[in-house]
Model the fold of this input.
Amino acid sequence: MDSQTIHETIYDRFARQVASQPDASAIITRKRNVTYAELDRMATSIAAMLPKDPRFVGIVMDHGPAMIAAMLAALKTGAAYVPAEPSFPVERIHFMLTEADVDVVVTQQEYDSLFRQAERVYVEPAYSGTSAPAHTTSSGTAEDLAYVLYTSGTTGEPKGVCVENRNVLGYVKAFENEMRIGPGDVMLQYSVCSFDIFVEEVFCSLLTGATLAIPSSAEHDDLQALLDFVDEMGVTIVDGFPYLIADINASGRTPKSVRLYVSGGDVLRAGYCDQLVRSAEVYNTYGPSETTCCATYYCASAGQPREDDTYPIGKAVLGYRVQLLDDLLRPVPPGQTGEICITGAGVARGYLTDRPETGNFVEQEDGSRLYRTGDLGVELKDGQIAFLHRKDSQVMIKGQRVECEEVENVLSADEAVNRAVVRAHIDENRLSYLVAYLTPRHQDQGIVLSQLRKRLARRLASFMVPEFFVVMSEIPLNSNGKPDDAALPVVLKEG
Done:
């Protein structure tokens, strides 16, 4: 990484794009075409509304140019933004914004009821900023936090991953190097704002001179409408979970403008992209939020799936190092199973508060930081890495990381539940789903499932709520006093 990049902030890098192509399209929607200069003016206007020298700025908005401008505004002031979807459970939003102790929340009037005492700045979707010229300099440094993303945690509460400006810039350099993104490219913005794919979509576009295409919520939720949007906006890069790739693959429509599909967040199978690899490059990627975005790439369209129909996750990206280590952090020989451990440009600072998972960040003798992912992998004969499975109870549900223990703890705290055990099972398509095993707090009253689901929806995101619930008189235990998984009934689910 060059010295200029090391000392830049995200906003500094964005300002370079503004200066070099002010009239180029930064963001396009059905209704708007926002140039780089216009987006800069919007961000500057919003920054002027924020309190002086904020540390954390909450962002709870609909997807669109105003939302992106609000994030850039926070970064421009030297603050870190804390994003949450308005559709998230209210208590989850409260937890995130309270733990981060946000100085202000940028939101829309219609979402005012989501907040308690937090100071608010209202920016509506049609906002276009003031006519005053923008000042494209940042008051922050490369070492300042850029954002805090909340992911599922083992304690029953989400954990905030703290990512610095330099982490993002390091990852953008890796993406630019491999995917050759730049002016003329149009990236589809599909991911929710609290997932690292969103970071890849937004900053790998706006910091390289590409255009970000944001569909409406109706287009986002309807595959045919989404494909119409992709065609009409001339999208060249689609970045998303393997389920989105699989849906496009099975649709019978191959968007002619798309040159690159990037799959991340879960296992990519050959059957998910067997049609798309004929017309475009398809990449399988791997990396947790704790490493900003992806730490490895594998070009599926130029490679081969493994015997189990899954693609390898590839090799380390530019500026990263990926090793397979044993429990004592010693390298394992090729062909043997080891924990996937990552060092390099994108490894985050850590968690916002001290968490049990904080020990996954290990300071090295050379001053670098290593992140232990908790994922197991193996190095194949050709040097590529294959993902195997988690070491712990964390699973991927609809492309999102879920700690079974978090769901378990929320269930155990419910007024109708005495004990709860949550386990993941695999359906016919080899996708994970959750089953909750419960004992009622009051045997004579039982558990009313509809009411239980409503209570869970206030504390858990929808993908975290188990698909199946099994009420038992007691949870079977093994000789160690722990739940006996072998004695729990398996609830089968069709693919």
